[in-house]
Amino acid sequence: MNQATPDRARYRILVVDDDPEIHALVSMWLTRAGFDVDAVSSGAGALTRILVAKPDLIITDLVMSGMSGIELLAEVHRDNPLLPVILLSGKARIPDAVRATHMGSAAFLTKPAQEPDLVEAVQRALRLSGDRGNSDRVFADLLTYRSACMAQLVERAALVAETDVTVLITGATGTGKEVVARAIHLAGVRRDRAFVAVNCGAIPEQLLESELFGHEKGAFTGAHVRHDGLFRAADGGTLFLDEIGDMPLALQAKLLRVLQDFTVRPVGSVKSHPVNVRIIAATHRDLDELVREQEFREDLFYRLRVVPIDMPALSERREDIPLLAAGFLEQFARRNNSGSRHFSPEALEALVSAPWPGNIRQLNNVVDMCATLCKTATIPGSLVRTALEDRPPELQTLKQAKHVFERNYLVGVMRLTHGNVANAARIAGRNRTEFYKLLSLHGIEPGAFRADNAD
């Protein structure tokens, strides 16, 4: 449900341009449209004026002496990532517009701008925080909560959903980072295009570049067909870079170049391809600490962290546990075509008071175990306590970690070679017999990969 245009007399617009004629013209248009207008002639002056006037929206020229419009946008969003900024430029190139959009600009207009276009862009940017019908439905469908901390998180996520601003979602494993990323995508203008997710920590370094950016046929041993890569697969939609903190430094530099001009060059190619992709990244790691330890590029960190969203641990939102548990019980009943169940008061008390180091993912597993083992409609507290005690350890043994890495590596190689065991074995540095044994050990069937990405 679209709301009416907001009462414009409430809103103050800051115009930033070093051309006095543009100053006067834009100010006249906005005043005529009913807005309060401030005007300054430089980016530095704008940063000072923002502290005093507290504008609701900024309109800035792209090319100015001193601080550019892009630099002003970055400085404004460093302290206030949700303040709308519209850029104007008479010398705009497509990469400028793409870069500005992904840095969080509310609109990018070329000079000479027309009065109706400018006023409409301002109205739309100011209306986004109130025009929330689709956003409210999406977040209500995907997220279950009543806690204040989640309400604040959803408010911020819904505000950024209708923009192309880059989002960094942080939080412990199992807190629901991908669910929030998917909700942001579905609540935005890209909802009808692809949402492509990739776990940057689950794919071996030597395969991740090809997986993200693609490769040409013959680019390396085993590359028998061309592969477009996930950036191009997500063109027009959203690319979700999960566990971005695990990305190797060499690839971080290449990712940064893509985010600067939004073009990708496949491995083995001399040609770059433009992409129009909204980026949402996530990690359970402390990126500030990784930057200090020089394990994560500072420039990439700030490029990704335009709007940060920090997921609370389940132990910080205990009032949501009964709702979440009930929802997981309903899902279990639908999946298994079984009768409905509910938790006894004692069982709910055990759930609410548990420490939940595994967060929502652990809660889901506990609910599924209780629903599987319970023979009555009411799940008792004793069964909940048993399920909680049966939780696997959070830390893997070295053997377990090696097993997971080996399987991910084999899957990656088989995908890369489209199921050609001989080529895959050559890449892995094993003979074919040893390689077949490894595939068998991990239950990997080569035939499952032979139809993937075929030209």
Task: Fill in the keyword field for this structure.
455 residues; Rossmann fold; five-stranded parallel β-sheet; Helicase, Ruva Protein, domain 3; 20 helices; alpha/beta
Brief write-up:
The protein is of the alpha/beta class and 455 residues long. It is built from 20 helices and 14 strands. The chain has helices at 20-32, 43-53, 69-79, 94-102, 115-127, 133-142, 148-161, 177-187, 205-213, 230-233, 249-261, 287-292, 298-304, 321-336, 345-353, 359-373, 381-389, 398-416, 421-428, 432-441; strands at 12-16, 36-40, 57-61, 85-89, 107-110, 167-170, 195-199, 238-242, 263-264, 273-274, 278-283, 307-310, 342-343, 378-379.
Task: Determine the number of helices (DSSP H or I, runs of at least 4 residues).
Answer: 20
Strand order of the largest sheet: 2-1-3-4-5
Q: What is the average per-residue confidence, as pLDDT, rounded to a whole number?
A: 86
As a percent range, the share of strand residues is 5-15%
At the first level of CATH, the class of the largest domain is Alpha Beta
Task: Tell me the major beta sheet.
Answer: 5 strands, parallel
Structural class: alpha/beta
Q: What would you report as the Rg, rounded to the nearest angstrom?
A: 26 Å
Level-2 CATH architecture of the largest domain: 3-Layer(aba) Sandwich
Distance, first to last CA: 43 Å
Estimate percent helicity.
Answer: 40-55%
